[in-house]
Amino acid sequence: MRWRGCWRTCFLLALHLVAASAQGEVFNEDLTLRPLRDGKLQARFSFTTLLKGATPRDPVALEQDDEAQHYTLFPLALGQILREHAVTELHLTLNAGKWNYDHWGHPDEPGVGTGAELWVWMGDTAVASVDRRWQGLRNSLAGLFCASLGHLDEQRTTSPTLTFQPEGSLPDFAHPHELRHATLPSEHVCTENLTPFLKLLPCKSLSGIASLLNPHKLFDADWHGLGVHVRYREGAGVEVRLAFQAVIDPVRYSHVGRRDWSLRSLFDHSIEKACPVARSSKVRVVLPSETSYSISPGPSDITDSVATYTVDTAEEALDVSMQWPGESNFKYPATSSVPPLTDISVHRNLKGTSQAEARLTLEITNNLPIYVSAGYLETMPWHLQFYLHTLHAQINDAQRDDLLNIISYTPPVPHSRPALLQAVLTLPPQATLHLTMDVAKPFLRYTEHPPDAQRGWDLPPAVLVPFAFGELSSINGTTAVEPPTMPSDRLKRATAQGRRPRRMYTPVLLVDLATPDFSMPYNVIILSCTLIALTFGTIFNLLTRRFVVVEVDPISVPDTPMADAAADGTPR
Amino acid sequence: MDSSSRHADPALLCFESSRTRRLIIASYWAVVLLAVPLWWKSTSIERLSLPTSRVHAQRSRELSYAAEVQVQTTSAFEVQSLVKKIQDAPQLDRSALQASALNVQLGIGGNSNSTYNVVLEQGHSEAVVDGRKLRFGLGPAAMDSEKTSPAVSIETLADTLTKLLAPYATHSVTQMQTQRVMKYSPRYRLAFTLLNEDSSSGTAALSWDVQEAIQAHVGPLLEKLSDLHNFTIESQVQFHAPLAFQPRASRHGDEDVHGLSPEDLTVFINSAEWTLSSSVSNDPVIHFVLFIPSAKNSPLHILDNEGLSSNLRRTGIHLSNHGLSGLVHPSNAFLLPQWGGIVLLNPTPDPTSTLNIISRLTSSDLSSVFITFAHQLLTLLGVPGLPHNVRAVYYSDGAVQREPFTDWELDALLRRRARENIQSSTETLEAIVRLVDQIENMPVGQDVVGDVQDAIDALNDAHKSSRISPVTTLKHSARALTLASRAFFNPGMLALLYFPAEHTYAVYAPLFASVSAPLLGAILREFAAWRRARKARKCAGEQSREDDGGRKAHAAKAE
Fold first, then answer.
1. What is the rounded CA–CA span in Å between residue B382 and residue B286?
2. How far apart are CA A558 and CA A514, in angstroms?
3. Contact status of B363 with chain A (Cβ, < 8 Å)
4. Which of A140, A203, A543 sits opposite B24 (nearest CB)?
């Protein structure tokens, strides 16, 4: 039986490879599990389909009919949207929860901003304008993923090219490429988004690693999010990567407070069958630095403290599990005693109780002993308007505006366009930089309020990109450092050096804008009608009243003609 | 009398005169009355008048195509009398031709300009269609120079001609077949899907040479149909497509089979689990599904109706071999009306292994499947097919690619589609007019009126060109249909449907009621006062004449 199974798998594998290489479409899947130091477990599913030799559609060709589309592994529904709107690169993330950088480190998927985030690079031609296609694209994606991405309208769309550089390559069209970026922090990811996401996978959730994607467990996780990333890789083709990331708390699931986990305890499933069309299908477990754990079954390969299991060769259901036998229950590390895992830590707050103005503060701590330069991006809907002259940087209550260098600022246009602030911060070693800025809260029109107006407005996260480390510390010693003269150049250089800067998202903010009494228009109508009627009646009466003199002298004769006139019913 | 000297009489003040008061009231009313047209104008709904009479005139218009049939012979037939005989034959069904709006004219001669040619030949050869030419054998008896050809052949010819020219009105195209036909659209999307029920179970096809197969079997057909429709083609492969029900297991011969009853076929498509096409455009989609059952359900066959009933009769009884031999239907393809076609493919099991995974279906594997798809496509698009006694020309040398269907069929289809389009756009236009008449607060904007007018113009063009070319007629009728439905679905027409006038009145009632009360009261009172004053004056006039003497007497008495 065992031999037959083995033979069967080998046969299957050989067939897959033949099939895959013949089609020009390659599908890889992998799952990375990483135990975190606060007892949680980060799980990252990644499903990559490469369409070999394909190029993104040139928007110049949008006038003509598109060629027939034949896909084997590549999702047709997504492929059609990409071609319909001539998208070169697309990134869509739908997340729920707040990523805890200090305890969890940098995520495997960098896009962890709360809510929905969509950014695309598209060729810009006169045939079909980028903005029209951007609108069509977000509506198509909204339909595909059952998310309210249609709200990512021009009130939220910006083009922050310094922070969101293309992750693939841009094809050599005869026209430039443009970036469109929008976030919708109030969008919440749930089962209705996961179901269409699973339908884009070749094996759906019925075999292979994707069979672990059980919505009951995933949406119970402390943090969860899905992402769709399409990019063009020069010389390879168009690659679509579907990713799901979750931070699960095994301690919460355990009755005795242990952090032991297995695939079955985490997802209620184990991997029963391999996906027959996956070229590689791997489960990776990042092994913790302490040695008191045990892992079963034995991994097929361990390199750089990463244990790898191959699903292809698994003869029976694969259920990876990890135990800490010496530990009776998990003790959370004291937050003060452990250093943050990332180079810089960011906190952003909105202070002030007034409904007209507030103060935005940003605390950035450099955890490294060297100078760090970081790009700072704020895309703010016009629901919060900056007073840019009040933007100040402070370290230990000392004004240090020299550490702040604004690259570009696009002021908001009320009711139509968001503000875009791009700046470069120089962070001195082991210090905390405080940025403060006064903001105004505008009044909204009656119809602009969302259904649940009293909840307030979610504001998108700010993005920080530390891009240069240590280079500046030698220039001027510990004294004030002159910010770089050509920061955008530096950003590019840092990218070119091969080290891709990693984005960090701050948590979202909730701003409380003045909300009207929504029954007010009717009250106003009734009140003003009453007032008008009252005034009108008074004036009209005064103008048309007939005044008479009534003699009250009892001696005088009562039946005078005047008395008759007074009794004829004129208004009094 | 010193009190009157202290208080001036108010009635003598200039603004207390009844004339001023009446002027004031009149001016109030003037403002109100002048404001009424403004109010009317600013709150009324834009309702432009639709060309109603032109729309209704379309109903009475009859479409009429012209078909000229030229009869020619290769031998010494008496053509003149033959033509007359054909014309008089009862089998040349005038009512059927009328129903297809066809005006057939038979003529003599062999000039190639004429639309259709009938070539009469000797011998009993089968009727053959070649392009727009029909070769018909009149039989050896006609060779007799008796000037009388056999009546039977003439009748057959007349019947064949009717069936070729008006296939939808006459021959075996039943009601059921017409219900299968997709609604007309200028563009269709053809979605080919290779569905594996469960590719991890061991029976699967992992990829297919779909492009070659489409090129070979569907391509020529689409080319021929290019006057009618444009097509967008897409294809995908799915590796997990579970069925929503469990096929019934039975034994057929000496193997276990799994069967789909006719009821199962109606629920075969599991649209909740299968993503067969995306919603990227609004064009109607024709689906073609090649379904490969999982190892558990294979082989999968369609059960006969009779087989099913015998099966039902035998429920509870052990199914014996011989009684069920007729259970499986020979076909493994079926068609869902106005949706698409499905072919079940059971890969031939490999005796050396339990696995049955085909890494790639080659175009030769797919040949029979795509011939079925092509046939299903023709049925779904309403290509009528030839009468039973006629076959298309077949060049035995094989150098010439066989036409997917004949020009006679194409013309009949063109005429039918154009007629349907004209009919449905006329109906749509009438529906718009009816709707606008019925719902009084439905706005009708300039774009709706423009679309309606353009649709009527396109209909007129279609009628005008119907005698010349069915292709132009179809183009115009398709334009009319598009414009008419765009006018019908114009979003501007819905704008005020949900805000009726009663709401407006309810909002304004507090203002209108309280303002109009004193206005009305004042005018009524003033009117009453004026009448009384007039009466009093009249009385006073009579009185004064009567009183003339009395007053003098009174004065005298006082003195």
1. 13
2. 67
3. no
4. A543
Ranges of beta strands (E only) in B340-472 are 340-344, 356-358, 390-392
Three-state DSSP state, B46: coil
A529:B514 CB<8 A: yes
Four-CA torsion B462, B463, B465, B469, nearest 10 degrees:
80
- The pLDDT value recorded for residue A449 is 87
Residue B237's CB: how many other CB atoms inside 10 A?
28
Q: Are B236 and A76 in contact (CB under 8 A)?
A: yes
Average confidence (pLDDT) over A19-34 = 78
Whether residues B206 and A71 touch (CB distance < 8 A) is answered with no
- CB–CB of A68 and B354 under 8 A? no
Look at A4-13, A112-121, B55-64, B536-545 and tell me which has the smallest mean pLDDT.
A4-13
B200·A77 Cβ contact <8 A: no
Gap from A137 CA to chain B (nearest CA, Å) = 10
Q: Is the peptide bond before A487 cis (omega within 30 degrees of 0)?
A: no
> Within 10 A of A496 (CB to CB), how many other CB atoms are there?
8
Cβ–Cβ of B237/A206 closer than 8 Å?
A: no
Report pLDDT digits (tens) over B358-413: 888 888 888 899 999 998 998 898 888 777 777 777 665 544 456 778 888 888 88
- Sole residue written with tokens 């001696």: A555
Sequence-ordered list of residues with C-beta below 8 angstroms from that of A1, at least 6 positions apart, any chain:
none
Q: Look-up: residue for tokens 């739908």?
A: A94
- Residue of B199, B360, B518 with shortest CB distance to A537: B518
Token digits of residue B162? 């009717």
Pick from A410-419, A562-571, B16-25, B328-337: least confident:
A562-571
Residue B314 pLDDT grade (very low, low, confident, very high; cuts 50, 70, 90): very low
Distance of CA B291 to the CA centre of its chain: 31
Residue A204 sits at φ, ψ, to 5 deg, of: 45, -140
User: How far from B271 is each of A199, B242, B268, B278, CA to CA, in Å?
Assistant: 12, 10, 9, 12
Residues of A in Cβ contact (< 8 Å) with B240: 203-204, 206-207
CB distance A313 to A300 below 8 Å: yes
Contact list in B for residue A534 (CB cut-off 8 A) is 514
Q: Do A529 and B353 touch (CB under 8 A)?
A: no
Q: What does the alpha-carbon distance between residue B493 and residue B481 come to, in Å, rounded to a whole number?
A: 19
Q: Which helix (H) or strand (E) holds B189?
A: strand B187-196
Mapped onto helix, strand or coil, the DSSP state of residue B190 is strand
Judging contacts by C-beta atoms under 8 Å, the chain A residues touching residue B360 are: 18-19, 22
Q: Do the chains contact at B528 and A569, CB–CB below 8 Å?
A: yes
Q: Is A72 at the interface with chain B, CB within 8 A?
A: yes
Encoding tokens for residue A526?
Answer: 């009734």
Tell which B residues from 275 to 304 touch A, by Cβ distance under 8 Å: 275, 277-281
Tell me whether residue A452 is exposed, middle or buried, using C-beta atoms within 10 angstroms of its C-beta: 0 to 12, 13 to 18, 19 or more: exposed
Report the predicted TM-score, pTM, of the whole model to 2 decimal places: 0.81
Give the separation between CA B250 and CA B320, rounded to whole angstroms: 10
Q: Of B122, B121, B132, whose CA–CA distance to B72 is shortest? A: B121
If we measure between CA atoms, which residue out of A90, A113, A94 comes closest to residue A167? A90
What torsion, rounded to 10 degrees, do the Cα atoms B275, B277, B282, B286 define? -120
What 3 state SS string does B311-351 have? HHHCCCCCCCCHHHCCCECCCCEEEECCCEEEEECCCCCCC
